Amino acid sequence: MGRKDASTTKLPVDQYRKQIGKQDYKKTKPILRATKLKAEAKKTAIGIKEVGLVLAAILALLLAFYAFFYLRLSVDVDPDLDPRED
């Protein structure tokens, strides 16, 4: 019977460790939440590289479109011909 009573009482060192563990958990829980939110934001955020690549692709398409029509619509003018000549 004496042993059963002895096991229910905890050592002060164990109680102190348990109390410190609870305090550390309380401190780290908001920090962990902030770290998790920061990681989520980093995953979903569009980076500068992606924006630059999209802008470069749009610029290349516009340049190709312009060059195509510039070369297609430019007409070689023959200086010997007079446009007012009938």
Walk me through what this model shows:
With 86 residues, the protein is mainly α. It is 77% helix and 0% strand. The chain has helices at 2-8, 12-44, 48-73. The mean pLDDT is 78.
Integer average pLDDT: 78
SS strand fraction: under 5%
Protein structure class: mainly alpha
Principal-axes shape call: rod-shaped
Number of helices: 3
Report helical residue fraction.
over 70%
**C-alpha end-to-end distance:** 130 Å
Radius of gyration: 38 Å
The low-confidence parts are none
Number of strands: 0
The helix/strand order is HHH
Largest sheet: none
GO cellular component, one term: endoplasmic reticulum membrane
Membrane topology: Single-pass membrane protein
Protein name: Triple QxxK/R motif-containing protein
Organism: Chinchilla lanigera (Long-tailed chinchilla)
SSE order and pairing:
Elements: H1 2-8, H2 12-44, H3 48-73
InterPro entries: TRIQK
Family: Belongs to the TRIQK family.
Keywords: Endoplasmic reticulum, Membrane, Transmembrane, Transmembrane helix
Q: Tags for this entry?
A:
86 residues, mainly alpha, 3 helices, 0% strand, rod-shaped
Give a brief description.
It is built from 3 helices and no strands. With 86 residues, the chain is mostly helical. This is Triple QxxK/R motif-containing protein.
